[in-house]
Every structure is written in C-alpha cells, then in structure tokens.
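Below is how a single chain appears once it has passed through the pipeline. First comes the sequence as given, then the structure the pipeline wrote out for it. We keep one example in the README because the format questions we get most often are answered faster by looking than by reading.
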Amino acid sequence: MSGSVIVGYDGSEGSQMALRWAAAAAKDRGRTLEIITTWSMPAADLGIGASSTLQQELIDELRDEAQAANDAGAQIAADMGVNAVGELVAGRTAAALVKRSEGAEMVVVGSHGAGGLTGFLLGSVSRQVAAHAKCPTVVVRPPVADMDGIVVGVDGSEHSLKALEWAFEQASFSGLPLHVVHSWEIPPTWSMVEVPSYEPEVLIRDYGNTELRETSEAMAGFRENFPDVKVRQEVMKGSPVKALVKASENAALLVVGSRGLGGFKGLLLGSVSHAVVHKAGCTVAVVP
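Resulting structure:
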C-alpha cells in the first residue's frame, strides 16, 4: 500500500489517543496523516415551527465545532512533526472512514468516540470500521504499563498470513519485538471418525508438531525480509481467543486477520477477530 494513514478525530479522549498513535505510525512509515472529522444534524426534531434561519444557525454551529476539533487535531500532529491534512465531512463517521480506507495504508480509530458509552467494550464506529474497512484497521486503547512488544495470531489461513506480514512490518517500523502465537484446538471431526490406533497423547503431540512446522515455514520468508525484528514463536493447544486475549494483557499491539481458517465468506469478521477486538487488553489491528 502507498496511501495515507487515516484517523477519525472528534476531540474526545479516545480519538486523541488514536490521533497520537496514527501520527507516530505515519511518521515511522513516511506517510501523510489524514485527519477526518465528521458532523451531522442531530436526530432531535427542531419542531414544526422552526425557521430555516434557526436550522442554518445550528448547521453552522455544528460545522464550526467540528472544524475547531479538526484544527486542534492538525496542531497535535504538527507538534509531533507529522505531515498532516485535515478534512471536514458531513455524514456518519464510520461511513466516511470506510470510504477512505480504499487504498489507504491504515485506518486508525479510538475504541470509543465522543458518543461512546463506557459500559460498552467497543464503540459503534470502531466496530463498523473494523468490519468494513478495505485496509488494516487499528482500534486504539489506552496503553498498559510494562508493554512488551507486538502479538500476532496465526492459523495458516490467507488472512492470518497477511496479518503476520503486517505485524512484521509494524515491528520493524516501531522497533518492537514480535510474539507469534499459534493456538490450536482438536478438530471437532475427530469425534466423528474411528478411534485412532495409537494413544491420544501421541495424536495430540503429532498434531501440535504439525502446527509448529507449518507456522515456522510461514514465518521463514518474513524473518528473511525483516532481519531486524526480534521474534518469539509460541504454539499451544487451546482456545485461540483465550490465548490472544491473555497475550494482549502486556502487549503494545495485537494483530489478527479479519477471518481465519474457519471463516465464512459471508461474515465481515471471523469469530476470533470479532472476539479479540472486543476483549483484548491493548490496541488491536485487524488486517483484511
């Protein structure tokens, strides 16, 4: 990709974290940062007797507030030494960001925006963008203490290999170590076939060795292309969601593919990516 880094900004605390993350990424990658701020008329009815003048005044006020937020975001980026441009868009935030994701380097959003309800694990905008964007989406959460590099989940699928490549790239740009996690479970079809002629422990061990070999083979080319990245590989038996959420507790970033081996093409996000975007303890990148 050769496009800009896109960030949604509304002046909220969550969007400020997203802006700073996006600005750092744009600077590392030598990309332009595009700061998108949206505005729209409220759903509330102004009343049958509301004049066109009153409506126009409200429109002007909303646009001015959005412009002030966009200008403030551009100033933050400038203070960080990033080449940034601001844009005001009338309409829904998620739709605006998804539209601009075509050909972009990445889209960055906060886990909650100005309208976010703290009781929800993920805001509606971040959820929609992660599901529909055409480029990697980064959902920024508050950093944790003692952050220990980047975690990426792999399962051998096409989407997870794209996630692995993106994770290597991000690790190289950021100078952070990379922790590759391949968690596997016993295929459910095993319960439908004949009992194996050798001990289940041996069967599980052999299956695990196969998973380890496949992961190592997938990583070989990326290790060669990114020799500066320090890599730790871990293959374990168990739930991928639990393994990745656990690994995210002290990570700076968790990277997953939008769908895995079990993904249905009709679904916009696979079950694992959907779960970790909601439950992870750190910033999450979803790679389509």
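Residues 3 and 111 are 23 Å apart (CA to CA).

See the next section for the split statistics.
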